[in-house]
Amino acid sequence: DNSLYGPRDPGIHILDRGTVNAALYNSSSAWLLEFYSSWCGHCINYAPTWRNLAADVQDWHPAVKIGVLNCADEDNIAICKDYGVQFYPTFRFFSAFTKEFSQGENYKDSDRRVQTVRHGIIDYLQAAPKEHQPSAYPSLDPLRLSDISFFIGRKESHYTAIIFESENSYIGREVIMDLMQYENILVHRALSSDKAVLETLGIVSVPSCYLIYPNGTHGLINIVKPLRSIFSSHLKSMPSVRKKAGAHSDLPARLEDKEEVAWKEYDKSKMYAADLESGLHYLLRVELATHQTLEGEKLKTFKDFIAILHKLFPGRMHVMKLLETLQEWLVSMPLDKIPYDAILDIVNNKMRISGIFLTNHIQWVGCQGSRPQLRGYPCSLWKLFHSLTVQGATQPETLANTAYESDPQAVLKIMRRYIREFFGCRECAQHFEEMAKASVDTVKTADEAVLWLWKKHNMVNNRLAGAPSEDPKSPKVQWPSPDLCPPCHEEVGGVHSWNEREVLAFLQQHYGSKDLSLQYADPNTDQYDVEDKKSDILPTKSPGSDNDSDKGKHHDHLKPEFLDKLIQNLPNKSKNSNNNFEGSKSSVTFLGLGFSNIDMSLCVVLYITSSLFLMVMYFFFRVRSRRWKIKPNRPYV
Ligand SMILES: Cc1cc2nc3c(=O)[nH]c(=O)nc-3n(C[C@H](O)[C@H](O)[C@H](O)COP(=O)(O)OP(=O)(O)OC[C@H]3O[C@@H](n4cnc5c(N)ncnc54)[C@H](O)[C@@H]3O)c2cc1C
């Protein structure tokens, strides 16, 4: 379990695909839900604040509940997709008594400190229309002058507290919410604008709390610091004021730190295919799968990303074949909008093409964390892009005859776009974009691209050293450390300095495909043929390899007949292709219910065939019926 939250975190409701819809639908309370990803550094760093918030407002739970949902859990992918969550953390409000599915309302404030979010909750509750107000929602509106005089001196069976405060203060509303589950007391708020009332009651400063005892006596509470927590705890401690039966405070001890995961021994100087393949599996089946469709810049970025992966990914044969199939399919698709399910069909090899396979589970080795929520995916993404920059520098001929030929920034540009469009950790993406904007244009050679990424990664390491997302077993150090690459480190005038020539050589060796270790890599070879098992690492591609004759063989074997047919049937060459496909596009959205493009294309073909058939039948019967009409009038001769 890689969840950042435990069942015993006070006030936190852990939701998942089995519980989220039932919890939100027609709920008697509102919800504030954090959709997070357990690998996202910002989510890890923010988790203590979210826990504090949940504990802080747990007495408010009849009116608002605080929830969490881990979108990095593969079981929750579909649900995060339904809620349209692509970036983490995402905070959404859901109102009470919703009768139909809703994606909620974003919590927009970039200030996410406990107090600010608490104020945001109050604003949200107050703005809710009457039919969506929680059932146990106390009035947060200020008392009118007549109400105040009604309460003063009145005998009741309970205490009445009135918080006097200025108009923009939240304290009164917070204290009302804090005591909503307590019996023998009612809390109200009043504004300090009526000076005469303040004077009568002897109130000289606000906020102040005026208390009317059950016997009718009344007076100002003497409190040293006029803070929300002090008002609340004072009122909760009045004689006979207690929590209502059935209102559980639910304040157990914090969960012990999650147990350590079983550790796999590995060599830090090596790269593991298992990390790259697990990362690719997560990227294609989890990170991107939160998208219903890809279109516009996202689709362009995805196509370019797959194109460069297909050329430079240092993977095993069966993964490379998958990338090749995917790339060819994307190139032949004239659509400007592709449902992601169609891409998943290819990734999952629904067509059962021989020799294609990508592991469908995660096996971190060099990216394993000492706890399940540490390291993993972002580590593999760094490794992936470092590998691509190194492949681009050591085998520049691979990119011959492509749009990226002799572009030293090719990989960095695509990485930048990928991170911007798809990387779930939004704040990471913003930081990376700032770094790229500032200096990526200075990169003039492919070797400089390798070093640029290395330097930027070290800047990130420097920034994150000591953060909660740091794994104590893999501290964020300036990399490669002296034990990995002694000649990379030098001293100039007693100050540390990098020998960049040595660093480059080290990166080329470390991220080069030659030394990729297959230890712990998924041994599942059932799905690819015997010939492929013999040569596990794909040999380096030759220049312009797409046109190579020896590759032709492999190509034929790769491209299934029906894929060819599908491609031929699409109106890609027609001038009116966009118009022709208009209907199909809308059907795609409609069929986002699970139909792939392949299904779609078959439908289009069937549709055209049956229309033609109907037209032929129509003309046939028209001609026949004319003849029938004419016949009786013909004079017999
Ligand atoms: C583009 C990007 C931006 C990110 N921005 C943020 C952010 O702003 N805030 C945040 O909390 N998290 C951010 N992350 C996540 C963070 O950088 C780590 O990936 C995550 O915390 C996991 O750390 P790790 O210990 O596995 O090491 P990682 O930093 O993920 O490194 C993975 C591996 O790469 C190698 N390596 C380390 N340094 C270098 C280097 N300089 N050059 C080449 N190889 C190296 C090492 O083998 C290391 O184990 C970002 C991730 C990415 C991909």
UniProtKB/TrEMBL annotation:
Q: Which GO terms describe its molecular function?
A: flavin-dependent sulfhydryl oxidase activity; protein disulfide isomerase activity
Q: Give a GO biological-process term.
A: protein folding
Q: Does the keyword Oxidoreductase apply?
A: yes
Has the keyword Transmembrane helix been applied to this entry? yes
Q: Which GO cellular component terms are attached? A: extracellular space; Golgi membrane
For region Disordered, the annotated ranges are 526-555
Q: Which residues form the ERV/ALR sulfhydryl oxidase domain?
A: 370-479
Q: Which UniProt keywords apply?
A: Disulfide bond, FAD, Flavoprotein, Glycoprotein, Membrane, Oxidoreductase, Signal, Transmembrane, Transmembrane helix
Q: Which residues cross the membrane?
A: 604-621
Hey, which family's this protein in?
Answer: Belongs to the quiescin-sulfhydryl oxidase (QSOX) family.
User: What is the name of the protein in this document?
Assistant: Sulfhydryl oxidase
